Amino acid sequence: MTPVVAGLFNESTPRFSPDGRWLAYMSDESGRLEICAQAFPGPGEKYTLSTQGGKELAWSRDGREIFYRDGDRMMVVPLQIEPAFRPGAPRMLFEAPFASNPGGYPNYDVSLDGTRFIMIETDATELNEIHVVLNS
Question: Using one digit for the tens of pLDDT, what is the confidence trace for 92-131?
């Protein structure tokens, strides 16, 4: 076994891009958890995609976006993947108190087209409803 990301910091929750050419993960190198990406298997530059902290990352099905949580905010980072990897600026999609996974793995899923999310509401008293949030 060969380490892909090895350093003095905590790096966790790795996720391969749909084409397998990129690896996104959480790192606390900045002093807080941030979402990072780098070429796989490497070598290549490491990119920090989040700017105010991040966890629970997920790739879009086409590999052109990374979704992540920043507290109650659902964020997205657009990615240019050809001819070279270039992340765009993160932007907030919506904000709501959905349940978070303390382990850092996503506690939500994204539709194939990246416009709908399924999440667990934190203040739900009964578990007999499903709310789908549409990205507008």
Answer: 999 988 988 888 889 899 999 888 999 987 765 555 667 7
What are the start-end ranges of the E strands in the chain?
11-16, 22-27, 34-39, 46-48, 55-59, 65-70, 73-80, 86-87, 91-95, 108-110, 116-119, 132-134
Domain that holds residue 120: 11-134
Residue with tokens 């990352």: 57
What is the number of structural domains in the chain? Answer: 1
Q: Is residue 126 part of a domain?
A: yes
CATH of the domain at 86: 2.120.10.30
| Amino acid sitting at position 98 | F
Give the global pTM.
Answer: 0.83
Amino acid 19 reads: D
Q: Answer whether residue 5 is part of any domain.
A: no
